[in-house]
C-alpha cells in the first residue's frame, strides 16, 4: 500500500485513512544515469538468475575484500553474513578488512590499530590492516579512511589472499576494490564484485563535497569505477535498478547479475516479545514503531521526529530509535528541546541481540532521503526486518518501496512527508493486532521466498565457482 498526504492530515485514532494520490515528482538533483533509466516490470524473484547446480561442487578458497566486517553491525554486517554462509557450504574463507569503527568512527574496545592483525571470528579467518579511523561527515577524513584501507589492503592482499581461487569484493565503499586489480595482475586471481552502493553517485548525492570539487571528484571516481568494472570477472548488484544504470554506463548485460543481500538469519528471526527487556529499555507504549540502524544524514530521521511530534497526543504510540551515528547527538538534542516524551533512544545493541530488540516493536520503519540514487538501492534493513517477521513502513522511493508493496507487509510513504508517515503509523496502531500479525507473516514469507540465504546463496556460490581461477 502507498500513502501520500495533503498539506494536513487528521491523525486521531478514529480518523479515516487518507485517500491514495500519485506521488509528487522529486525535486532532488539528478544523478547521472539514474533519472532516465527504464523501469523494470519484473518480480524480484524473476530478476535473480537461476543457479546452475552441479552434481559435485568443489570447495573453493575464497578471499573477501571488505572495508567492513564483524563485530561491526547494522549496514556493515553484510560481509560477515556472506562469509559465514560460504564457509558453511564448505569453502575456505579469508577476509581482508580494516579495524572495526562503524558507525561511530572510533576503534572498538579490545582493538588497537597496528600494521597487521589476524583473528578468527565465528570460524572465519580475518586479516586486519590499518586505515585512518573516521566515519563522520567530514569529506576529507572519510576519504582518508577509504583510501588508507585501499592502500593497506593492496600491500597485504598478495600475501594473505594470494592463494585464493577467486576474490569476492564487497563494494561498499567502492574503494574496497582497490586491491583487487593488482591482485589480479600479480597473481591472476579473478574477482567478483557485489555492488552495495553505486559510486560516484553515493558520494555526490551525500552532500559531502560541493561545487567544483564535487565535479572533479565525480570525474575521477567515474574513471576508477569503470576500470574496476572492466577488470572484474563479474558484477553482482543488489537491485534491478543498479543493473540498469551499469548497463547505461557500458557494462555488458551478460556481466551483470542481480544477487540481493540476505539477513544474518541467526540474528534476525521472529521471537516472542520479552517483557522484562521491554521494561528495562522503557519500551512501554501500547504500540511502538522502531527505527534500528545508522543515524546518518541520508536516513532522514528528522522526518521521523516530525511524525512523532504530530502524534505526541497519541499516548498509545511510542517511537524507539536503536543505533548510533553522526546525527545522533543532534537528534537527541532535538527530542529534549521539543520535549518529545514519546521518543526514546535505545543506543547501539549487540548484533546477537537484535532479534529480541526488534521483537519489542509492533512495526519497523525504513527511511532514506528522496534522491535519485536511493530509488535504485535496497537498504539492508528491508531484508533484516522481513527476516524478523515485522510489518514495515517504507519511507523510501523506488525499488525498496516496491518490494514492501509487492510483499503486502506494510505501507510505503513518500520520503520526507511527515504527515503521510504519521498517518501510516496511526493506521497501524489502530489496526486489529491479528491483522498486524498477518502483515508480519507476509513479511517473513516474502523474505523466505526472495531474500533468504537458502534462496539466494546458491546463486552467489555458483557465480563464484564459474569465475574461479583455473590453476
UniProtKB/TrEMBL annotation:
GO terms for molecular function: glycosyltransferase activity. The keyword Glycosyltransferase applies. It comes from the Bacteria. GO terms for biological process: lipopolysaccharide biosynthetic process. This is Glycosyltransferase WbuB. It comes from Dietzia natronolimnaea. InterPro entries: Glyco_trans_4-like_N (IPR028098). Keywords: Glycosyltransferase, Transferase. Residues 20-32 have a biased composition (Basic residues). Residues 1-52 are annotated as: Disordered. Residues 73-262 form the Glycosyltransferase subfamily 4-like N-terminal domain. Residues 1-15, 33-50 have a biased composition (Basic and acidic residues).
